[in-house]
Amino acid sequence: MARNKVTVIGAGNVGATTAQRIAEAGLADVVLVDIVEGLPQGKGLDLAEAAPIVGHDSRIIGTNDYADTAGSDIVVVTSGLARQPGMSRDDLLAKNAGIVRAVVAQAVDHSPDAILIIVTNPLDVMCHVAMAASGFPRERVLGMAGVLDSARFRTFIAQELGVSVEDTHAFVLGGHGDTMVPLSRYSTVAGVPITELMTPDRVRALEERTAAGGAEVVALLKTGSAFYAPAASTFEMVESILLDRKRVLPCAVLLAGEFGVDGLFVGVPVVLGAGGMERIFEITLTADEQVAFDASAAAVRDVVAKLP
Ligand code: APR
Questions:
Q1: The domain at 146-305 falls in which architecture?
Q2: What's the pTM value of the predicted model, to 2 decimals?
Q3: 176 an active-site residue?
Q4: What is the tens place of the pLDDT at every residue in 88-103?
């Protein structure tokens, strides 16, 4: 049986690191695409030359030609401009919308059955652009944000309580921005809600650090934005789909009435399997949580309205 094929568009920090994870796990053959000539070819060759040492047989190539991406099972979109210090995600809107529209249109021409995973920011809005450019059903257009935001929350919970990250669980819903909704009630250590393990002040502090998690890394890096955790998050989604694991992961999907929201990409827990988004995991929110979720959805709606 042939290996699965994953195309990663954008051979920058997030794209190349995602490609490396997928190839080195032996999960799929990887095609790395970029608009810059030589960049994806160089990184692809470099990654292929690491294979004998790492010990995997995934084929990995870089290209500027979408013909090489034909028949991909998954297309990951990371192409765009990364956020610079002082630049909000929304500043990137017009530029990245044009890039995402163009790359998705070309990619789906060659892979009409693929599942799209969008990583480019502003995330939720880029999902709208990708959905329109692809004409795909909502099951096959997913945004990577909630896995990353939840991983950040888990990191802070584990550090705060001095426990293994593995025993933490966190749920962060809503848009991928300052209005994201960390659900502390459903965030646990070994099944115990963190609200029983920390004071409300500490819970709030960790929630706030999570919501500003991307900006914290940008401020430190100064030239560019986070990529190790975004790549690991994207890998987790790719793996759940290709291995049909049916992981329950928070992803941006087009809501059609779920959580009281219609016609908008917002982060919610979904079941990820071979069919892409196989089910939305609707949970009952408290009145306060619903207010925060609605505010987050409204923030996404405002940016969608600004789409050129
Ligand atoms: N087609 C293909 N590749 C493109 C195009 C295009 N039209 N336009 C830009 N790119 C490529 C760039 O050449 C660059 O190599 O996208 C790559 C982006 O890489 P980086 O600048 O390193 O950005 P990165 O840190 O990987 O972030 C990419 O993911 O997390 C988000 O906010 C982040 O939107 C950003 C994206």
A1: Alpha-Beta Complex (3.90)
A2: 0.97
A3: yes
A4: 666 778 889 999 999 9
